[in-house]
Specification:
Two copies of one chain form a homodimer. By secondary structure, chain A is an alpha/beta fold. Chain A contains 15 helices and nine strands. Chain A has a six-stranded parallel sheet with strand order 2-9-6-5-3-4, with helices on both faces. In chain A, a hairpin with a 4-residue loop joins strand 7 and strand 8. The first copy, chain A, starts with a strand and ends with a helix. Chains A and B meet through strand 1, strand 2, helix 8 and helix 9 of A and strand 1, strand 2, helix 8 and helix 9 of B. Strand 2 of chain A pairs antiparallel with strand 1 of chain B, so a sheet runs across the interface. Chains A, B: This is Iron-containing alcohol dehydrogenase.
Chain lengths: 386, 386
Amino acid sequence: MLNFDFYNPTHIAFGEGKIADLNTLVPHNARVLMLYGGGSIHKNGVYDEVKLALGSRLVAEFSGIEPNPTYETLMKAVAEVKAHQIDFLLAVGGGSVIDGTKFVAAAAVFEGDDPWEILEKRGNNVNSALPFGSVLTLPATGSEMNSGAVITRTSIHAKLAFGSRHCFPQFSVLDPVKTYTLPVRQVGNGVVDAFVHVMEQYLTYPVNAPVQDRFAEGILLTLIEEGPKALETPENYEVRANLMWAATMALNGVISTGVPQDWATHMIGHELTALHGLDHAQTLAIILPAMLRVRKEAKREKLLQFADRVWGLRDGDEASRIESAISRMQAFFETMGVKTRLQDYGLGAEHIPALIASLEAHRMTKLGERRDVTPDISRQVLELAI
Amino acid sequence: MLNFDFYNPTHIAFGEGKIADLNTLVPHNARVLMLYGGGSIHKNGVYDEVKLALGSRLVAEFSGIEPNPTYETLMKAVAEVKAHQIDFLLAVGGGSVIDGTKFVAAAAVFEGDDPWEILEKRGNNVNSALPFGSVLTLPATGSEMNSGAVITRTSIHAKLAFGSRHCFPQFSVLDPVKTYTLPVRQVGNGVVDAFVHVMEQYLTYPVNAPVQDRFAEGILLTLIEEGPKALETPENYEVRANLMWAATMALNGVISTGVPQDWATHMIGHELTALHGLDHAQTLAIILPAMLRVRKEAKREKLLQFADRVWGLRDGDEASRIESAISRMQAFFETMGVKTRLQDYGLGAEHIPALIASLEAHRMTKLGERRDVTPDISRQVLELAI
């Protein structure tokens, strides 16, 4: 096991009816800015429940945070914070709204010249942030219980990540009932997103960390079992609850303690979203199977463990078990309604040079758990993913 | 899954050499009281490393916190805190030292008349506590990453638990190297203690919580695999690291999210320690096998899951699989050097009435995940454990 630090102070309030707890979770004298995306929270009742729970607190609103939240939009929210002397942010939505709120929280009190520097420095220049909480409506990104965020700057086609210990939500409310009405596409994306988060922390090389490995495998098995059920029976509370908790545990720091991490799939995926607008999970579903095939030698031992413990593949030679495991994973993504080839999204070989150029422009030239995923290897991955 | 709240702000600094991080973890202007047990930290170098890391900070010391820390001893530490205007506590030791420090932290600022009321009210009357951290030397109790403690009052033969959200360590430093020199008895006790902690949260009744179940099973499997290796090769870093992290994850709130909890074995065990001085883990090793046998109908489904997933028992009828699983667990405790019958400790049927009377005196009359473990059932358990 590698040395590590673990710190995660986010209070999770989980279960049906828990939105009412906002009345104790948000300070009574807070001047709140409630941030959300489109109109879904008006349709599913979340907006009304949140407002009711906040009672007589002063609540301003900022709506219109888009999927892959943009710097351009979020800077408007920062202006609202300053205009109304807001001292508490409440994100109501999925990972994009929570990620965006983290940026607003940091940018509103940023001491530098331009808050975009937060992304350029990956958050190392964040020394404080406004306190904030979240009400999660879409299990997927894990943003509700971590301190990271990914922000897009449309004008320069950049999608970059930052993180800071000042950017943990103080609390997140997770009510599985509020996920019943999610569109099928978002359910599928969410399951794939959580699955790939686990893989980025698990499918590297062994460091003798059996607790972390088994936790990771436990989340993967749960996503495989419960994901399809959520598509079949959308109003099954237990299925929704298990998916919601699995997605949170997939990226709250627990399974990454003391183990190497990859994240190359995410970095290449970010370029696909920035240049071509694909959903985040779609990019992961395209890149990961190809990445594992290209890097199967470097990841051999963990691929065999994944084949055995997650897919029950114990017969045949090593190469066939590895290929079967990757194929099963890819088929699972397709089962969740997420296509896994570039061509499924109208993309081909002609788009690869620009993607590689973007990776290089963003200094994503040494990716992966051993920093040996060069632009040339990223090109091989993209070519195999066509 | 049941509704739940999860909150755990303890910062974990894990790995070889991490004691040096105290220099950043403890405030530079702190007036520190360092609390420890006997002389082992002088022999294994921990004392010197801690002092070095604390640098020029003002550090007072309080030694002599015993296994099953007593109210009598701890109140002397409270007097030291007040005499020296201490504003930060640093526990250096195992679960007893950390538990004791939690009580000192709460008692030093307690607003009531007598800090023993903290135990009588189970901590519900704790409104604040001094900040504190820990350096863990004995993986076992999980106290390094939770907010609970068990305190003994010798004068009245009482061993009671309390907990408060104000009593999380701010940080805990876990260096597996510092566990190399532990006596065999403490290694065995620690593994059994962690194992039973998991069982109290896992072996109840199913609520469809697959992530939590698999996490629990992952910790149990790790303890079963790594525990005996720690006895065979005491200076194996990886084994010690895995045991240390397994014991922390066993009782930091992660695996208890959304599931029922039992704790009847612990409550009966506390009486055995209070009346007869047995090690905490010895009491658990005695009580748990008998408890599972007496309550095998109520726990049937989870016992079958435990037999299957932890012990690989899939053949034979249900009753034989359940008995085999319990026997295997009991044999594992014995392998770790912890005897599992009352008679192994010189105790027999004649001691049971007083144990039951103590349970009743401490209002431990409705125990277990369904509150149906009456004194009569506790008596059956003790009789079966002879």
